[in-house]
Write a structure and sequence with these properties.
Number of helices: 30
Structural class: alpha/beta
Largest sheet: 8 strands, mixed
Strand order of the largest sheet: 13-12-11-14-15-16-17-18
CATH class of the largest domain: Alpha Beta
CATH superfamily of the largest domain: 2-enoyl-CoA Hydratase, Chain A, domain 1
Bound molecules: (2S,3S)-3-hydroxy-2-methylbutanoyl-COA
Helix content: 40-55%
Number of domains: 4
Amino acid sequence: MTEGVVYEVNDGIAVLRVDNPPVNALSPHVRLALNELIRKADEDPAIRGVVLTGTGKVFVAGADIKLINMPRTGPTIGDFLAHVEGMRKPVVAAVQGTALGGGFEIALGCHARVALAGNRVGLPEATLGLIPGAGGTQRLPRLVGAAVALEMIVSGRHLEVEEALRLGAVDAVVEDDLLGHAFAWVDRLLARSLLPRARDRQPSGDMTDIEAARTAFDCKAAELGTNGTAATQAAIAAVADSFDRDFDEALAREIEAFTRLRTSPVAQARIHAFLAERAARHVPGVKSDTPRRPVDTVAVIGAGTMGAGIAITLANAGYAVCVVDAAVESLDAARTRINTTYGDLVGRGRMSAGAAETARARLRWFSDLAEGVAEADLVIEAVYEDMDLKKRIFAELSRLAPDHAILASNTSYQDIDALARETARPERVVGMHYFSPANVMKLLEVVRGAATSPQTLASVLDIARRTGKIPVVVGVCYGFVGNRMLWQRTVQTQKLLLEGCSPREIDTVLTNFGFRMGPCQMQDLAGIDVAWRLRKARGERMEPVDTIADAGRWGQKTGKGYYLYPEGVRTGVDDPELLEIVAGVAGRLKVPRRRVGGEEIRKRLLFPLINEGFRIVEEGMVERPGDIDVVYLHGYGWPRDKGGPMHHAETYGLKRLADDLDRMAETLGEEELRPTRFLRELADTGGSLAEIDART
Ligand code: T1G
């Protein structure tokens, strides 16, 4: 059985070409074929050497991540490389595409590596909470030195092959005729008495490199306030073995560490995140061949903070952008804001002055709506959250924008179907919910209205990807997915404050969980006054936050909110005055005060939020539970080591979660905290979210 690898003989050289779409992952059948075919070539007297290459734009993408949790069957890459290193015939890797993880490890185990220019290589296992498990921690240091190998493995970064050549990780980079050059390398190696093997070399450097890395890692971990990652510690230990342990013994220890990490919660969470991000790209009814109109010109209606951020995002990606705002002073303010942003990007070296100038030149400014949308292929409405105003704008856009133009709203919670009903083109109405700052945050909630066509979705998904966003298609409901779930955490945060928790106690629970910021810190950053104004306009009240806002404590922008921000201090310091304000509100509302423990805080901040996620899945507001995890990983700072709210529920245990929510509802007297019917049903039947994810 050699499915997955094509075997051809050309002029006495056997070419093994991995052919396992879409990325030549090392699935079991590929590993089996490689092991069979390398022996076939070795035993054939007519074969003087072997070239290993791949099909398509990827050489080999590494282990099959979709199967990484399955019991390992059949021969391994380690078996393949052990055979290669025992051969007397040269084996040359012809890296025609991206070589990552086990894919790059295969190349490292060959006698030489010839790469086609413009491609990339790397050992990204650390991004999955792993370490290389096919000899990368032993062969790479022997080729590039311990310090460089450690940096590559701990960072998991991809390198251009040109850099890999400079470092010694590949032997040649060619512009074309890759196979021809690889064949020449076979003959060059045949002329040598001994075949070069990475395992026979000593890694340059010494244990001081290891200690330096360990110190740097400990400092970074301390800086991040974490104990760092087990993968990083394991990687440092494995590379250290390359100095003072027999090669085969070190290989065995590497596999032990890899196997231990693979089942760790962090690796499981990161693998889930990787697959959920890719699964979210699959939208029912939208295929790669779904017809879509090209979008070249985009009009952005509303030159506020969001409008300006969206305009930058689009201009950076090469779109012609028409910013429209009836208030000339808003246009001027947006132009200033955008110039400042580009100036910062250039100043920080994030963008060249030329690229900034080119992007800025793509922006045009209009105060007249008809003129601003006259050439638009897409119009993104980004005015403030006044539904009557949005409806009026959509009715006008329906008249004024070109017939083919898509009409999108950046609203963060309003009814897209109601906006569609204001137009004569409901099939081309969609939500594009950016997250602030729109030119930085990756997440884009694409809100699919009842009438939104697959063609419209296809165009918007293309734009998302071209602008470097991570789109998640969501249904029409108040707050869509992210904000709808976050509301549950906001409600509990306010209750916990009234019950006696300080902002610091609340925030610390979530920063210990892995968030960069807790809910109070986030509100201070975003501005407490934003929601406060909306509630005032609607005649609503939320305590104690609205009393805090009444006192002019709007967060960082006013130097104090939940915390004090002395001049130049961004992290915020505890403020006894704030605690007095909250205690006053609690007294007025007759809320009993008590000591609330960290575990209760954590469960109240996370579990009602997750419970709402189960409602969202049950209502069909997402295609799969993993989509919610992608929303939270890329829009709400959910720690990647925890995989996302739904993954966290799964690992915590659905029955345990449902029972905790029941207990919470009874203890707090809040029936709305009961587990949703869907969660309770899964919990009681032993169902799993992973099974639902796998079905889509
Ligand atoms: N295994 C299985 N499927 C994979 C895969 C993999 N390694 N990589 C990608 N896919 C699927 C992906 O889910 C999607 O599927 C499709 O391919 C296109 O992916 C022993 C154990 C190679 C740079 O971490 O970085 O080796 O949605 O959209 O943008 O030490 O994929 O079509 O069903 O990302 O062109 C280490 C992970 C594994 C590389 C291509 N390797 N992949 O990017 O395509 S651990 C990695 C990538 C390991 C060894 C250890 C990227 C890519 P679907 P895509 P892309």
